[in-house]
Structure formats: structure tokens, C-alpha cells
Specification:
Helix content: 25-40%
Low-confidence stretches: none
Number of domains: 2
Structural class: alpha+beta
CATH topology of the largest domain: BirA Bifunctional Protein, domain 2
Number of strands: 16
CATH class of the largest domain: Alpha Beta
Largest sheet: 8 strands, mixed
Oligomer: single chain
Shape: elongated
Radius of gyration: 27 Å
RNA sequence: GUGGACGUAGCUCAGCUGGUAGAGCACCCGGUUGUGGUCCGGGAUGUCGCGGGUUCGAGCCCCGUCGUUCACCCCA
């Protein structure tokens, strides 16, 4: 009796072969530059105390107020599936006293995150991000380095059609001054109910409105960048100077808005041109008050998160995804029971030496097995039957040329390495 | 969360004004006994997303539901 099929929960992204190898390539390419810059892996739980995100990310944010997967565990604790990476990293850094050692603390992470949004292409309820955090250094040079690492990841992937947008959100003083004038400006606007509600929660949000009439209305709104304190301005100017020196191109976007409360100072976003509405492939910035907010010492920090799913979509859209499909070195076709045993032995020995070896089990006809070998893209094929076993010699066939040479089974390794 | 589009074999899709489903690709087998890619021949496959309704009769019409997708929103 056929049972009813069970399908994946709504809106999750998952990757099966052969696309999974593209996913793997994207994920690894994006994060590789981090370890080359001395960042070390930090592996964290996917669920945390709900309070961590409320306090870290901010209760007024959409992410926390309406997009979290929160539930009570069996001990009555409120648990939340992590919607982003930074808060968890800060929690762990404080908990393990990493900030008591040499600064900055430099870590990278990779994994899945969860947000209960309405799904569409590039926006999933479970999605993948890689990211880094550099904690405990105010130097604008680290800002530039962090941005350069993200940019290097996208470049390593082969992406071209994206841009880096950058601005500074300034410090508390800068934002307070700006907020007063911005609210004054907004009060002169006629807003519909939903928009007014958004403005009440975070007036900066109005800069993000996609509607033309709103864009026009906000044309003359006071910009935060014009309210930076001398210190914030100087910091930002130096970041820009370093980026120029690094040859990293960027667009200044003083209207950029970020959805997480902890951002301060340098803030940036990578936007891809071919992705439609979900075009942000990465973003990050400083979060100078976060650690203290979470009960740690008062250290600054900066980091980014890159969307692996979206970067994959972008790579596919640009047609730059490398065709590094799985290919084995040797494909063994055993004929008969005795040969299977022999094939297993030979394969184990070669695999122990680092060779990728596949065996055609299942007693397929030789023709079918050869077809399988061909499809697998294997470099070499051997047929293992009675005569081969008794003579200890096989015909090593190179699939591409069709040429085969006699090789002793014992010297297969050397033959493969030629 | 709001509004719109779509949902037919593993994949891409066709199916005229309602009459109980097809193509290409992929897959499997064979073309004389142990060597692939081309070619030729043959073959399997669908509760037409799901549930109701209208009708003598629905893949085609109506309602609901689930999923995907586009925009808003949000952001990776």
C-alpha cells in the first residue's frame, strides 16, 4: 500500500544532487577568504534562549516581533530557532570568555537560520548564511578588512553583477540628533496607516519604501550621514579611504536601512542586479553596543552575513557556477560474486590512498555497467572477471580516449597516478 | 502578513469551444555470448497538487485548501 507522501515544510531551501555540489562550492567559496585572514570557526547551536534575540536583535524589529520560530521546550524554557548569527556569536564569546584573551576575537560561522516569513525565490524559512565577526577593535582598518573579505568571497565565486553599498549609521549621539529632525520632517507627511505604523517603530524605515510617491516624499528628508559626530565622520572617512586603497568599488547610500537594531557606524550591503526583490546577497556592519547589551564588557564589533542561497541564485543567474561535478578516478565493474569481493578489496585499498573509486554493484549487464561508468564521468574503468582475477591483470581503460592498457592489479595506484 | 499568477509523467512542457491524457529529454531492455558515448528497435511511468461542487461526463468550469512564484513588506 502506498503511503501518503510527506513533503518538506513550506519555504525551506534544500539542495539535492547534482545542485548540492554547486551549493557546496558557493558556500565554501564565500567563507574561504575568512580563514585566510585568520578567522577561526565557531560552531553554535541553531536554537537559543529567546531572550538573546529579543535583547540582541531588538524587540522592535520585524525579525524579532513577527518572524521568529519560538517554542517552549519540555522544561518550559522559551527557545527560538536562530534568525541571524551575530547575537549567538556574542553570547558564546561572552560565555567562553573569548573576549578576555587577545583582541580582536575573530571568528567565522556557517549554517542554517530561520525566519517565518512568506517565502518567495531567495527568501526561505530556513536559509543558509556564512559570516564573520571581529570583536574588540575600533580601528576603521578592520571595517575595511571585513568588507574586503566579504567582497573576496563574492569575487572567488565569480560574481560580477553586484555592488557594495555603504554608509555610516553613526554613534548614539549622531542618531539621536538626526532622529529629532527626521521625526519633525515625517510629521509633515501624509502617511497611510501601515506606513505611519512603520514610521512609529523606526522612522528610518521610510527611506526604504519602494513606492515612487514615497521616494519622492522622502527626497528632502534629513539624512543621518549629515548628522554624524566628528568622531563618527572621521572613522567613516578612513574606512572609505582604505576601501579606495584596496580598489574595492562601492556606492555611498545614505538612505540605506538595516533591519536589526544593533547596527552602529559603518554599515554595508551587497546587492545583486539579477535577483529581483530579494537582491541582498550579504550585509553587515558595526555593532558597538551589542556585547554590553548582552551582559558582556563594553567592546565594539563588526561582522557580516552572506546569504548562501541567494549567492547560489546569483551565480546561476550570471552563469558562473563552476561545473565541478562529482567525478571518480576509477570505476570498477565486477562480473560475478568472487569479483565483487575482489572489487571491494581493490577499491578500499585505492580509497585509502585518496582515490575516488566507484563500484558497479547489482549484477547489471556489462553494457549497462559501462554506460553507467560513462555517465558517472569516471576517468578510468576496469572490468573484473574470472580471467582478470586468475591472471592478476586488468585492462585499465581511459574513458576519454577509449584506450586501454594492461595493468597488474597490484600496480593500479601507480597507473592511476600517471 | 497583503495583493496577483501558476500547479499535467523524474525534468521541460502540449492538451482546441468540458467527452475518462500526450511530446521531447531522462530512464530501463535489446541489436548474439565480457566493454561506454552515435544510431536503430522495444518498454515502464501519471489517483492531471489535494478536497468538495456543477454536469450524463472535468485536466479543462466554480469553491476551498496546500504548494510554488511575482510584487509589497522584510532581509540573507
Amino acid at each position: 500500500m502506498a503511503q501518503q507522501k510527506i513533503s518538506a515544510p513550506k519555504g525551506v531551501s534544500e539542495y539535492a544532487p547534482p545542485r548540492s555540489s554547486a551549493f557546496e562550492f558557493v558556500r565554501d567559496s564565500l567563507i574561504a577568504p575568512a580563514s585566510r585572514a585568520g578567522y577561526q570557526l565557531i560552531e553554535l547551536p541553531v536554537f537559543e534562549d529567546t531572550e538573546l534575540f529579543k535583547r540582541g536583535v531588538g524587540e522592535s524589529t520585524d525579525v524579532v516581533s513577527k518572524e521568529m520560530y519560538t517554542f517552549e521546550d519540555r522544561g518550559g524554557r522559551s527557545i527560538t530557532l536562530r534568525p541571524e548569527g551575530t547575537a549567538g556569536v556574542m553570547r558564546a564569546v561572552i560565555e567562553h570568555g573569548l573576549d578576555r584573551g587577545q583582541l580582536p576575537v575573530k571568528v567565522w560561522y556557517s549554517g542554517q537560520f530561520f525566519r517565518a516569513e512568506r517565502p518567495q525565490a531567495g527568501r526561505y524559512r530556513q536559509f543558509y548564511q556564512v559570516g564573520i565577526e571581529a570583536i574588540g577593535l575600533d580601528d576603521p582598518a578592520i571595517d575595511a578588512e571585513v568588507i574586503a573579505i566579504a567582497d573576496a568571497g563574492f569575487k572567488a565565486l565569480g560574481l560580477k553583477k553586484y555592488r557594495l553599498e555603504i554608509t555610516s549609521l553613526g554613534d548614539l549621539q549622531s542618531r539621536a540628533a538626526h532622529r529629532v529632525d527626521l521625526l519633525k520632517f515625517i510629521s509633515t507627511l501624509e502617511l497611510d496607516e501601515a506606513t505611519a505604523a512603520r514610521a512609529a517603530i523606526n522612522p528610518l524605515r521610510l527611506f526604504d519604501d519602494k513606492r515612487d510617491e514615497m521616494k519622492k516624499a522622502m527626497q528632502n528628508a534629513p539624512l543621518l550621514i549629515d548628522y554624524l559626530t566628528d568622531e563618527s565622520r572621521e572613522h567613516f572617512n578612513r574606512v572609505i579611504k582604505y576601501l579606495d586603497a584596496l580598489g574595492i568599488s562601492y556606492v555611498l547610500n545614505p538612505r540605506m536601512v538595516r533591519g536589526l537594531d544593533y547596527y552602529t557606524g559603518t554599515t554595508f550591503e551587497f546587492v545583486h542586479e539579477l535577483l529581483g526583490a530579494q537582491s541582498g546577497i550579504g550585509g553587515g556592519g558595526r555593532y558597538d553596543g551589542l556585547m554590553e547589551q548582552l551582559g558582556g564588557q563594553s567592546l565594539s564589533g563588526i561582522g557580516f552575513g552572506l546569504g548562501v542561497d541567494r549567492a547560489l541564485l546569483a551565480a546561476e543567474a550570471e552563469g558562473v557556477i563552476g561545473s565541478d561535478a562529482f567525478v571518480s578516478d576509477l570505476f570498477i565493474i565486477p562480473l560475478g560474486d568472487e569479483a565483487k569481493l575482489q572489487a571491494l578489496t581493490v577499491a578500499s585499498a585505492l580509497r585509502a590512498q585518496g582515490k575516488t573509486v566507484e563500484i558497479a554493484f547489482g549484477d547489471r549487464a556489462l553494457k549497462g555497467a559501462m554506460k553507467g561508468a560513462d555517465k558517472s564521468g569516471a576517468t578510468y574503468v576496469i572490468v573484473l572477471g574470472e580471467s582478470e582475477i586468475s591472471t592478476g591483470t586488468v585492462e585499465l581503460k581511459e574513458m576519454k580516449s577509449g584506450v586501454s592498457t594492461s595493468v597488474k592489479i597490484d600496480s593500479l595506484l601507480e597507473a592511476l597516478e600517471k
